[in-house]
Amino acid sequence: MSQSRRTTLAWMAAALTAIPAVPAAARTTKATAPTGLNPEFSWPDVPQPVNAAVGYGTDPDLMNPSVPWALLLGDEDKKTLNVIGNIVLPPDKSGPGAGDVDIAAFIDEWISSPYEAQAGDRSRVFNGLIWLDWQSRFLCQKPFAQADGKSRAVIVDALMLDPVPDYLVEPAAFFGRLRGLIVGGYYTLPEGKAAIGFQGNTPMKDYPGPSDEAVEHLRGLLKELNLPYPA
């Protein structure tokens, strides 16, 4: 579990070319694959709360953004997500880790939203957090957020196995989707934008005017159109 941001972005590049489901060729039926985890823990199927909020509506106030729906994650869930955030995108010279900037707040808003596109993520994240705590308690008698680094590494490394043991297909899919949410959310934050050098619409103090090359290009176009070029 000593991956860098370079490793994480390589994961994401590979995920973009993968199909959503784990194909049979990428699985192994060996329940005794050397993961250190308990293969008897099946994927939980806990009913998820239905958020009845109406969402943003058709005319959101972009000048005063707000989240109009109730947030569903508890404090322990958010601690776990921030721990994973720093595993997926650890702090380095380019910026703070994803957990350091509270990536859990982004994920909480995402999975709590009342839209169809987020419904699957809500179920997967909630059940995935339950599964992480089950395995963590099996390894060190503590939930994932409070586990030692060695126990966390055993769990995360198992979720990166290739091929994937059958009993880890759902957990591995959960972790893959969670990585996507963490990376996507992080690079929409100011810290993430700064890490990749994105400036956006930054106002200039004094506009220097068009370059000589641009002026010549425009003059040539106007000449072709038989239009005068202002002095």
* Helix/sheet category: mainly alpha
User: Into which percentage range does the β-strand content fall?
Assistant: under 5%
SSE sequence, one letter per element: HEHHHHEHHH
Q: How many separate helices?
A: 8
Rg (CA only): 24 Å
What is the percent of helical residues?
Answer: 40-55%
Please describe what this structure looks like.
The protein has a two-stranded parallel ribbon. The chain has 8 helices and 2 strands; from the N terminus they run αβααααβααα. 47% of the residues lie in helices and 2% in strands. The protein has one domain. The protein has 231 residues and is mainly α.
Short description:
This protein is mainly α and 231 residues long.
Strands, helices and their partners?
Blueprint lengths: L4 H12 L10 E2 L46 H14 L14 H10 L3 H25 L8 H11 L4 E2 L3 H18 L3 H6 L16 H13 L7
Primary descriptors:
231 residues, two-stranded parallel sheet, 2 strands
